[in-house]
Fold each of these.
Amino acid sequence: MLESLRNKENQIGVVGLGYVGLPIALEFAKKFKVVGFDINTDRVDLMKNGIDPSNELEKEEFEEKDITFTDDPKVLEQCSFIVVAVPTPIDKHYQPNLSPLLKASQTVGSILKKGDIVVYESTVYPGCTEEDCLPILESLSGLNAGVDFKIGYSPERINPGDKEHTLTKITKVTSGMDQDSSDIIASVYREIIEAGIYQASSIKVAEAAKVIENTQRDLNIALMNELSMIFDKLDINTYEVLEAAGTKWNFLKFKPGLVGGHCIGVDPYYLTYKAQEEGMVPKVILSGRNTNDGMGAYVAKRTIQKLVGNRVDISKSRILVLGTTFKENVSDIRNSKVVDVINELKDFSIGVEVLDPHADSDEVNGEYGYELVREPSGEYDAIILAVIHNEFLNSGLENYLKFLSKNGFLVDLKGAFKEKQSELNYWSL
Ligand SMILES: NC(=O)c1ccc[n+]([C@@H]2O[C@H](COP(=O)([O-])OP(=O)(O)OC[C@H]3O[C@@H](n4cnc5c(N)ncnc54)[C@H](O)[C@@H]3O)[C@@H](O)[C@H]2O)c1
């Protein structure tokens, strides 16, 4: 397989060209002939013109790459090594929504040939690739897995907005349904991943490894959030406590905050779903999720209590929220928990204005029903620094603080300005 990909007799197909699929497709296209397939025609048109619809990659990264972008699944027939990187969201009942993954499996199954290898990269629960996707590949292709074609799983670990830990610089976990497929899959990825490959012993192990990476992170943040609620009652600053505790060599440096986005707040539910299917209630993981999902309402409650303490007429009060994306310095607004803070404040008839230099106002309006303001205006009773975009850091914040009313206060969710506590009316997690 590797030799035929190297000499371009065979091609690599990437199905789903989002945050994960596009970088992997472009990286493969430095060495191999690649077909990039996506069902979203608008996104495909942008990529044909060297534009990353997710705003992560520069135009130069599309240059001199042997890649064909298409929304026509028939073009995938030319490929023998197919990577699937479609979304794996949850539904409103916090259950895995496998619909994009199963549809992508149908697409791949309908073009599959003898000798092909399919590698799933989407984050799933242990067992999903073999129990949910594989039967679709077999039934649509009429081929037998393990005999006519093989499958594998290789989770993605990139972190949106992180320019240091990029695709090729992160150790890549790979796996296959047997030793032969595991070795071939590892050899193909080895061609592009500088940091090296870790061959997991099975597909299930690789699936579980990915989902616990984010579950561990989620739980650690939940602990920090619970600590911050305790310290708030004790009137001590959480970030000062964490700084002091962090001087011990084995203290883990997590911080409190809103847990949004499409990975950390979502992936644990894939694991809890599977655990519950097996008759086990994963109390610790679900408790952490519950704490983190409640943080938006908690921040709003503490803000309102401070407004009341300032004798502000809530129905006439105005708050400026800085940042609405799910994390700093990205434009991605999916599953942003800042929205929970905003909605809770609006439920109390508070006038909320939201400013974010990275987010697209139309997209925010379409998704959450509010527009962004470009500039602050008038006086605000509070400013909530929700996302620490670079624009808001250092002297950047001064541009906004001057719009605070006399008793107005700063809610600093990430503790970025804790040294200003004595100068400002200040509250942080
Ligand atoms: N974004 C991250 O940083 C990240 C990191 C690690 C793992 N992951 C995981 O990787 C997977 C992909 O996430 P993403 O962030 O790249 O998603 P994304 O939403 O950015 O992109 C998914 C792409 O898949 C396309 N798509 C949807 N259904 C399709 C189908 N049936 N056939 C072909 N294309 C289809 C969409 O049009 C979109 O372009 C998810 O399982 C996610 O949990 C994401």
Note: The radius of gyration is 24 Å.
Amino acid sequence: MDKLKVGIVGAHRGSSYFQPFNAIAVTDIVAVCDINETTLKNTAERFNVPHQFTDYTEMLDAVDLVVLATPENLHVPQSIEALDAGKHVISEVTAAVKLEECHDLVRAVQKSTAKYTMAENTCYFKHNVLIRNMVEKGLFGEVYFGEGEYLHNVKSLHHDTTGNPTWRYYWQVGINRCNYATHSLGPVLQWFGERVVSVCCLGTGVRTDPEHAMEDTVMMLCKTQSGGLIKIRIDMLSNRPANSYFSLQGTKGSYESSRGFGAQPKIWLHDFEAGEVWKPLSEYEPEFLPERWKNPPVEAQNVGDLGEYFKVRDFIDSILNDTTPPIDVYRTMDFTVPGLVSEQSIANGGAPVEVPDFRKVE
Ligand SMILES: NC(=O)c1ccc[n+]([C@@H]2O[C@H](COP(=O)([O-])OP(=O)(O)OC[C@H]3O[C@@H](n4cnc5c(N)ncnc54)[C@H](O)[C@@H]3O)[C@@H](O)[C@H]2O)c1
């Protein structure tokens, strides 16, 4: 079989894809594309990529699959262009910046011969994979509460070295809503195994960076199909060290990830503990971490971050076997759309807003 020819678009975050793709025997990164010629040349030379493009449309002819590691507002137009040309798409997070463009993306996937995924890497964090496996084995009982937090002061990325605003200025913190929530919501929704039907969103007020519309901490409460609750906290503006956090509560189990500073992720499972006492999550790894994480395939042995490798490998396998990608366009919408519609809620004092189900788009 001919190898799948891969093009990386956006050379900064895009660079993280070289290791996984180089490990996979059936893929070849043949092109890199960036409008910044210096970044383009440096990346192509560093990773020994044969073809360089500053024009995305021109690059599409040379590849079978694109990785879109471009600014968030380009993800939908670039995905649609690739899908219309029959090229597979791995889109970085988040998939879209406007609700209206989500319909266009879903329709483009529906009519394309190619496959689409959003590369939500937190779904491939080892601890999140372990918890998911335990949930699927019924160890948490009925799951009804979860939390995801992403606290990362990225104010330094809002302007470039010449002082001009970057895409993050407009699309990550320029709109008051629960932006960039897929890292936090994605894994928790996988644990719940359902979608969000409505959100309520409130913020703390604009405190540290009056230049931006987004309130410093924004909190989104998500009601799931079965009536469960997921709390998402996003803060990309407050002066503080970074942290991300997850938790899960079910009728038979409870999980709290580490908040850093030496703390361990901890878990309590009714089926394993007579009393209500925490255990280190690591104690359950030998029994419940999926087999492929314990004994990775030979090609993954020097891949560095295993999660990044499985994220790419799963999508390639869905192409090779013509199966649905683990994070297909509908799951992508489940992760992305709550954050988009939270804009209406926060503008209306936290009033609940319905989250559309894109499986109904025709
Ligand atoms: N999954 C993660 O953990 C993670 C981490 C960082 C960034 N990201 C995502 O990756 C994407 C890129 O983020 P970044 O931090 O690398 O941003 P960045 O601004 O540092 O890099 C974006 C690159 O895209 C290039 N570019 C812009 N327009 C282009 C176009 N039309 N065609 C080709 N290249 C173009 C820019 O020149 C730049 O090199 C974003 O969507 C971001 O949300 C994800």
Note: The first strand starts at residue 4 and ends at 9.
Amino acid sequence: MNIKINGETRDLGELDPETPLLWVLRDELNLVGAKYGCGISQCGACTILVDNVAVKSCSYPVASVGEASVTTIEGLADANGELSALQKAWVDLDVAQCGYCQSGQVMAAEALLRSNPNPSDDEIDRAMASNICRCGTYIRIRNAVKTAAGQLATEE
Ligand code: FES
Ligand code: FES
């Protein structure tokens, strides 16, 4: 089985097609940014993108990817390691507390900005409601999304 991920095609060899994508990312591809939280599609710690749509990879069979392109947090920086606007905003605003949920938060925000480059506060809150932060960093998350949206708008 092959998978298109972060701009490359990777050979996964023989694999049970029902294997959750999160297991493949972490155990087969050593992409450990996506985290295991609940395992039942409730917390968002494992969020990645499949063709620009946020997906909870703990509950997503690897075979469901098919010909789509997967993006993980490791794929957001450019080839020179330059962080994306969203990642920079996250760092500048010191969003993370313990950090465990943050990869999933960034990927959910990335999906939002790819579909809605200028979201309102309500739209941010609705989109990010898919992801839980036990440290309560929600206000900083919203501010980082707005900062990144503003930055991306000036780059256009
Ligand atoms: S670990 Fe996937 S949603 Fe919680
Ligand atoms: S930063 Fe700790 S759970 Fe979100």
Note: The longest helix spans residues 138-155.
